[in-house]
Amino acid sequence: MTAPSLDVRLAHRRFLPAVIALFVLSGCAALIYEIIWFQLLELVIGSSAVSIGVLLATYMGGMCLGSLLLPRHISTTRHPLRLYAALELGIGVSAVVVVLAIPYVGGLYTAIAGHGLGGLVIRGAVCGACLLVPTMLMGATLPFVSRWVGSAAQGMSWVGFLYGGNTAGAVFGCLLAGFYLLRVDNMLTATCVAAALNAVIAGVAWAVAGRSPHEPPVAESELPVAVIASGAWPVYVAIGLSGLCALGAEVVWTRLLGLMLGASVYTFSIILAVFLVGLGIGSSVGSYLARGSVRPWMALAWCQLLQVAGIAWTAYMIARALPYWPINPSLAPSPWFNFQLDVARCMCAVLPPALLWGASFPLALAAVASRGGDPGRLVGGVYAANTVGGIIGALALSLFAIPHIGTQDSQRTLIVLSVVSALVLFGPASGLLGARLRTSLSLPAMGAVQSVAITLALFLAIGLGESVSDVPPGIVAYGRFFLTHDEPTYLYVGEGINSSIAVSQLANGVRNFHVAGKIEASTEPQDMRLQRMLGHLSALLEPHPKSVLVVGFGAGVTAGTFVTYPPSEVGRIVICELEPLIPKVVSTYFGAENYNVLNDPRVEVVYDDARHYILTSHDKFDIITSDPIHPWVKGAATLYTDEYFELVKRHLTPGGLISQWVPLYESTPEVVKSELATFFNVFPDGAVWTNNMDGQGYDVVVTGVNGPPAINIDAIQDRLDRPDYDRVRESLESVGFTSTLALLGTFGGQAADLRPWYAVAPINHDRDLRLQYLAGMGLNLYENATIYDDMEAYRRFPPNLFVGAPDHVAALAAQIGSPGG
Q: Are 663 and 763 within one domain?
């Protein structure tokens, strides 16, 4: 490619700040799309680690294909900025189409979905159909604009600045979507905002193209097929390993920091934003170094070597420093104070290695740059190598390394791979580095440099690898409240494919099951009462409970409740659990409380996202009981949406019953109102049952019936009086329910009575998932007493809900009272 004339170079330099600003906006729009697409497609293909892996591979794979293929098939004679404008316009249009089309794609997927390898292929096809077009367009933007700045080393440094600007925009997009757009509005509105940015970018880029002439090569056929400097393969290997380590580390550190800070959507937005800040700053620094006198190949080599210390630093901060900062998040008067602390902690931990990974990309570009070829293909090749490494790193760490060797050894593995990346560049086999060194150093000096570098790399690998510690068990168990709890005896701590879990025992003998840095089930009286309520209320309110679906295994207590019923009545019990470690390991520590549920021949365990299982199953159940995790945990709000409850209703037999746990603690009145409003929107005759002990409310159970509701007190009592119900009676009595009236006396109100309380609450829909953003603001609050008192004030005895002998109905009415009785 001929060198641009002086006039062209001056025009490019004059408009370069404007183009960098366009890349900032482009990065902002891209991150908004990424967050929205991931949320929407998880509703279709599920939110298990495997499904998310398929989704991530498709997203990044599309960008990789775009960066490689489009520059090879679109002529260099076309103005790069006009191509960029067309790409941005195409991204915006296709993004709106994707958001509008995903519900229809979901309907098609439901009809053909399967399990096993075939199911994975179908999930991949769905993701590809939705994401390949826009992601390929995204991947091609940087290679095309690189044609505008040139292929020399200095031109490639400007590409690094463009990459840094794009990353800076991604930070803003991440925060804008996570903290504002999706918190106050829905996904379609957020998509339209991002599409408007694409339209602005396209218009400005087209205008700049008119004032910035493009000088194509004299003959395109004279261009070499690829622009790879002699012996540059080590750079491609190194940048690929750099991408692998970067995305792999992000997976590991997001898992650990999510435990420590609370696994809400806000936490994940903060972690991602800080990581992107580091990449953006590092890219700018790397671009500056590439423009100066520093040899980019040498700087890239040392960058990989320093990355060893960077990974070790983050591992140290997460395991030995951050957990012991004297922070009690419940003391903050507003969640925004905790967000500030979360940002500070993430920056202390994650920023140093992110800076180095950010600097690696522009240094790699400059290291392989040469005149006489297509810069679009050059940038596309380096970008593709980095992206392929990122895909491998994200999938390998999340699906294989963490569940098999744990986060501690996963980080050690990343240290080793960083050393390998450095050795590839420093080693004698590195033709590029060796050639460069030979031009500036004598043979003995060159050997000395390589020997020192290799020795230092091996020393760092051994020393810093050994320094990586495992996180304290208390972080897995109590997360952000680690320092506020007395240290229990840990019976088990494990890291699964989807979650980190623990089982602990207090000095008084109480056992706790922990997941996502919080207690999910325990043998505490109030917890045992709630877990048994979920099972017994469901089984006794449903006159003929032949089949049961239990959503969420927990400690197995709710599922175990159903095995106390005679097989002639409850003949099939399906348990849907996302994390395989929970039924296989945790259940053994609660065998007495869950009646060794997994040993019952009626029980079948399905390891899948519950929503995905119900979506793809053709079975119907008499009972579906759901004990999901708090809605502030990222992804859990999908089990609290209007569409989910409609889906459940379609999988209930006529007269079938759903029961759902609704927490009052770690929540706010607005969150609980939204949960009830959404549930009762689908089950308008539903009811609330309170888990109250000593006048205090901890949580509630809501029930709904697929048909007219009617609770026959006498029929329930007759069943409990039968000899084959001896185990049922014992199970009820063990948690304080000594009679039918005691169980039904937990009635807390019907939907019609509570409607004035929750009337203005927002309905949680798939298209906005507002609940997870609303709940994320109250995860550190304990207002359950206030919420319980507010709900109790609306309680009335419903004369048409309970039927039976007049004296039995009167006795129940006296026990329930009205209001506050």
A: yes
